[in-house]
Amino acid sequence: MSVDPTSVAPLAVTFEALTEPAFWIGVGVIAGIYTLLALGLQVNVGFTGIVNFGQAAFMAVGAYAMAILTVKAEINFWLALPLAVLITIAFGLLVGLPALRLRADYFAIATIAMAEVVRIFAQNARGLTGGNQGISCAEDDPTLCYFNEWREASDWINDNLVFFWSDPEDLFPLLLVVWATAIAATFALTYFTNTPWGRVLRAVREDEDAAMALGKRTLRFKLQSLALSATLGAIGGFFFALNLAAVYPINFEPLVTFFAFSVLILGGLANYKGVAVGAILFWFVLEGTRFIDLPDPPFTETRIAALRLAITGLLLIGLMAFRPQGLFGKKEEMVLGE
Amino acid sequence: MSSPAAKSAPAQARNGALLDVDGVFKHFGGIQAVNGATFGIAPGSITALIGPNGAGKTTLFNVVTGFYKGDRGAVTFDGNSIFRHAPYEIAQRGMVRTFQITKSLAAMPVIDNMMLAAPDQPGERFMNLIVRPGAVRSRESEVREQSMELLEVFNLTQLANAYAGTLSGGQRKLLELARALMARPKLLLLDEPMAGINPTLGKRLLEHMQRLRKEQGVTFLFIEHDMEVVMNHSDRVVVMAEGAVIAEGEPHEVRGDQRVIDAYLGETQEDSTT
Ligand SMILES: Nc1ncnc2c1ncn2[C@@H]1O[C@H](COP(=O)(O)OP(=O)(O)OP(=O)(O)O)[C@@H](O)[C@H]1O
Ligand SMILES: [Mg+2]
């Protein structure tokens, strides 16, 4: 756990698990969630030129808002989802309004700080968030849990839609829904980016002054870009929470954002289809290296865990050496962007 | 001493001026970059802004277009005060500028650079992409056509789909000018538009400016160091030195002004005119 707090709780760490479908379904769920997170980063970094290091905060606000609304305010789960998205967008705009006036590099630092403030707040505001114990079910009613409605829907999907698998895994519906969302988001973002609106975003990325000199109210476009990534972050946060059956502060460490950035860089900047490919590659390498079977002394479990991260890191470095633009990025754009 | 023209010109131009700059100040630390600059631009005119390096010409452009917040003074454009207003708002009102150091949107194709500048594109509002996709598309094809026409004028048709960052320095300068025209400005502020452009194309550019002025009533204010261009292609000249306007008038008046000769043109210019 010290290595990646993001790894899926239901996953067993034993090597036998590697041949089980449940393991790979879990990896697929995580890859889909990271696709959503990195799509948000792609809108910001790849298309608007604003470096957002706070994606974990959007996830956290989305996930906590959903859990608190359902468990504490006892609002219906399906109503809580859009409300939590709106809360996350409002939070994003609140942070963006002052921070986006900063220079790009200061904005990046401000977003890291914001994400840590959110996480540390969640750790300490025990009455609201349950502190380090997290939030899952109501204290006075253990049957009132935020994921109840999802469990029902999930069972329904397995019973009615998964006709090709006689005994599907519990996590399978989540995999389907996560990827349906990720694919829909990929198409929607591709569409929006190829519009006049998307053209202004790219102009802001290239040179904000030039865009302003042509009458574009750039702050507004940057805020919209941030609102989009907040939406995607919140949705990623929901799926994260449904996957874990509890929302813990530790799920939202800065490492989550940095993994999402790795996915982004792997897939390539300024294109959307690379994001899913990058996410799958990243998580299948990181989780697949659990196959590494080395004699226990000297290879303890923690050492192997560190080794896996090192291997993933080397893969990224190797890719950067041979394909600095990422798998789907355009080299010309990268050089011209200087 | 200032010539009679320099004294009478401001009052004359400032009645019904399209742009009126009145006692504008801007300092950076201890440097008084713009020091009470005052002048007016008549609608439909082509005015050259000249002065030695560091005179504050670019800074004045930046204050007038909202990129720098002026310390004090007044700037009126088309009857409205625009002093310390936001750059996008000033541009939307019809005052569009180019930059001394060209700002091409490098990783965007030339055609996208052009289309970006078009005003009144409903598709720049996110909601309209969903509720009015038809209006967005039809405006888009209109804008594309206008862009291609303008690129033709500037000899850039072949490069329409190239990344702007791959263009030569001179071509970028042309693109920036063409892009500014796409915004359908009332007043165009050009910061050294001829610098780095070959004379033949430069001449074409100047002719195009004349045509735009005649056909569409576009007004021009351009910073220029080439005195031949200034003398032959502007109707009025504003001379700045040390942040202030030291002379203003028709080209021949300004050329004979002793203060202008002292501050800017120097002895060689005097020799060449005799
Ligand atoms: N952003 C800035 N920060 C500090 N000083 C500045 C800034 N911009 C301009 N200056 C100073 O203001 C003065 C006027 O500069 P400006 O660029 O306006 O001159 P200019 O007339 O355009 O000269 P040139 O003909 O060389 O382009 C200079 O002394 C310059 O150093
Ligand atoms: Mg200058």
Layout of strands and helices, then pairs:
The complex is a heterodimer of chains A (338) and B (274).
Chain A: H1 21-48, H2 55-71, H3 77-99, H4 104-124, H5 126-129, H6 148-160, H7 172-193, H8 196-206, H9 208-213, H10 218-244, H11 254-267, H12 273-288, H13 301-322, H14 331-336
Chain B: H1 4-14, E1 19-28, E2 31-41, E3 46-50, H2 57-64, E4 72-77, E5 80-81, H3 87-92, E6 95-97, H4 110-117, H5 126-131, H6 133-153, H7 169-182, E7 187-191, H8 199-216, E8 219-223, H9 227-233, E9 236-241, E10 244-249, H10 251-256, H11 258-273
Parallel strand pairs in B: 3-8, 3-9, 6-7, 7-8
Antiparallel strand pairs in B: 1-2, 1-4, 4-5, 9-10
The structure holds adenosine-5'-triphosphate (ATP) and magnesium ion (MG).
Magnesium ion binds at residues 57-58, 100, 191 of chain B.
**Average pLDDT value of chain A?**
88
Per CATH, the superfamily of the largest domain in chain B is: P-loop containing nucleotide triphosphate hydrolases
How much of the sequence lies in strands of chain A comes to under 5%
The oligomerization state is heterodimer
**Which secondary-structure class do the elements of chain B indicate?**
alpha/beta
Computed Rg of chain B? 19 Å
Class by alpha and beta content of chain A: mainly alpha
Sequence stretches where pLDDT stays below 50 over 5 or more residues of chain B = 1-13, 269-274
| SSE arrangement of chain A, N to C | HHHHHHHHHHHHHH
Number of domains of chain A: 1
Radius of gyration of chain A, rounded?
20 Å
Largest interface: A-B, 30 and 39 residues
Gap between N and C termini of chain B, in Å? 20 Å
Q: According to CATH, what is the class of chain A?
A: Mainly Alpha
Please indicate the percent range of residues of chain B in DSSP E strands (runs of 2 or more): 15-25%
Q: State the strand order across the main sheet of chain B.
A: 6-7-8-3-9-10
CATH fold node name of the largest domain in chain B = Rossmann fold
- Kindly, what is the distance between the CA atoms of the first and last residues of chain A, rounded to a whole number of angstroms? 39 Å
The backbone outline of chain A, from C-alpha atoms, is: globular
